[in-house]
Amino acid sequence: MNGVAFIQDLAVILASAAALGWVCQRVGLSAVVGYLVAGMLVGPYTPPFSLVTDQSSIATAAQVGLVFLMFSIGLRLSLRRLQRLGAGLVLAVVLGAVCTYFSTRALGAAIGLNATQTLFLAAMLMVSSSAIIGKVLHETGSAHERPSQLAMGVTVLEDVVAVVMLTVLNSVIALGAAGEAGAVGGETKGLGATVGAFGAFVVFAGVMGLLIVPWLLRKLSVKADEELQTLATAALLFGLAIIAFRAGYSLALGAFLLGTIVAETPHRHQVERIFEGMRDVFSAVFFVGIGLQIDVAALGEAWWMILLLAGFTLVVRVGAVSTGLALVGAPHRDALRAGLVATPIGEFSFIIAQLGVAAAVVPPRYYPLAVGLSLITSLTAPVLTRRSDAIAGCVLKLRPRWLVVALEAYHDWLERLRERQAGSLLWKLSRKRVIQIVIELLFVAGLLVFAEAAIAERLGPGRFFEGGPTFLFWLALILVALVPLFAVWRNVGALALIVAEFSTQGQPPDKRERLRLLIANGIRLVATVLLVVWVGSFAPTHAARWTLLGGALVALVALLVLRRRLIYWHSELEVGLQEVLADAAPGRLSSTSVPWLGRHEEWRLGVTECVIPDLAACSGSTLGQLNLRARFGCTVVGIERQGCMIALPGPEQALFPRDKVLFLGAPESAAAAKAFFASVSDGTEISDFDVVGLEAVTVPAGSRAAGCTLAQLAPAARHGVQIVGLHRGGARILSPGADEQAGQGDELLALGTPVKLRAFKAWVRETGGPQAGV
């Protein structure tokens, strides 16, 4: 009966989620709000509607939903997108998170929260909901304006902040369980080690994933059908989630990492399409599962706290986001409008609250608090987005003169700083090397730390000599780590030459060469010593001394013997990564690369997007047939189809289901065109694909088809059939060309629907001489 009860609970959850999600969409809210309300209604705290009986099974399904949700969030983020967003936006998000933390810390001190509770509350407010913001921008038709694009960039990067914060909060929970009561220095050291280990794991998993996942997906796309591709990708998804969990992190981190890795491959849109249905179902289960744990009575009792924190959240998030963007040089009006758009909180805030409540480090009211804040910020988001320009104008008018002057002077200083950075040749030459060194060091750290945790601790004492498996494991691990370590040493050597060259400029020629060699060799020597000490710090303290010495000796011999081979392997590794990133960035437009629309208020123009439904009445029609400019005053500027952007399509371009259409026009014209695209047919039309058949048609004497070429007959254009074969005098011609003639007595093998075939057969039997009626 347990299985039947689970199916019954799942049916209740999905039905209530669908009903309330539809209601929320009809009133202009995100479906996520409906899912949360559905969970509260059918949960155990709202009798007599308590319809869900087995919450443990639903919690398991919700974990699956969390994995799919984080995977889909990761698919929206890639290294290419981070590069397009730029270091300035990354810095703005970091500054916004810092502002949010210190503002929340002041609030926590005022209302009596301890340090851990304040940290969890700050983490909940640091992260906006990309799902809700994307829905609001889509509904308001402002997704392609510059402030909206800035807000979407902020919310994408805040997803990364959330993943880092989950790691930090897990560390805080672990420290609390270990009885850290003591010193702040110990906490800081523990958090620093946690963040460092997190970076090492991310880089290690990312590099290995970039080398393995694209190769595997490419092989599957060639040698396996879509069903097997789906199974293999799902295995990768849950496998990496479990690896992250075994490494001491959450399932969410592994799923998020795989999403970012797949986003770097050409298979991204195919994977999105394959998992779209499962993601929607299990993500809804996840949000309903959040609502199931909300005590409506507790929600009512904490209404004053929810309202207080909602007002605080709206003010702080707008201030933090707009301050961060303004500090990195964004125009003040755009920064303020982006802050108004990026106010809703959602999925990550629920996960953070769930983590704290489950670990009993925050009170249970944090759960309904997160849901209440999400509901209020979701309700206010459409209003703030629509009126963001007017609100920003009013706020900017209130600025005192001295603040305007100070901000203008700060922006002038930023421009001068950018010009100096752009002209710094040393930084241009060394930047790539520095980034490669950091990534390779983190990769080695991840390899040594997590390989030991996953394998070394499971090795036995050895059959022939004690500690033998451990000794062999560390020898193999050192040999594997030699490739990235040698890459670090080569990059350090190149960086040393660059620094030495710039440091000796202006010196006399006789001294310059000696000084350059001295500086370069000195940097190499110091770097080598530091590298040896750093690698030695990862050696296990329980290992025997001869194990460590033997490993070091083997590494030295391998370095001398395999030096040329190591250079080759290093080059192959770098080329492989570069090829993956190059393949993931084909020279074509996508919806993520469409630039924002510049402001032209005097023309009242805007770009609106609409996805063609499966049963759309306009499906199969060309743009010329639809005549949108004459009917609605709109111009189609792009069509995204299966991840490819068709820019400025011509009138002959047809529309098909699931196409995303971008059209330009005034707000009222765009609304009318969007309603037209969203209209669906009654669904009574049945496809002729399943009834297409073959029929042999004999050309009788005196037929009008006798003596005509297939090009003159034009069977496809005139009759809706295809001639796929011709039988003449015992010879069978498969796929005859357009210059083949149909003679008397020839047998034509026609392909088409029964109606078309009957009409064509009747036409061929009519007499009239060669080319009559053609």
Question: Gist?
Answer:
With 774 residues, this protein is α+β, with helices and mostly antiparallel strands. The chain has helices spanning 2-26, 31-42, 55-75, 79-111, 115-126, 130-140, 146-177, 184-223, 226-246, 251-262, 268-292, 296-301, 303-327, 332-341, 347-358, 366-386, 388-397, 401-422, 425-454, 468-503, 509-536, 545-561, 563-583, 623-626, 628-632, 667-678, 710-713, 715-719, 754-765, and strands at residues 606-611, 635-641, 644-647, 660-665, 693-698, 708-709, 722-728, 731-734, 741-742, 747-752.
Shape: globular
The number of distinct β-strands equals 10
Per DSSP, the total helix count is 29
Helix content: 55-70%
Find the structural class using helix and strand composition.
alpha+beta
Main sheet overview: 4 strands, antiparallel
Average predicted confidence as pLDDT = 79
Return residue spans where pLDDT drops below 50 for at least 5 consecutive residues. Answer: 180-189, 584-597
The rounded Rg comes to: 32 Å
> How are the strands of the largest sheet arranged?
1-4-2-3
Spatial gap, N to C terminus: 71 Å
SS strand fraction: 5-15%
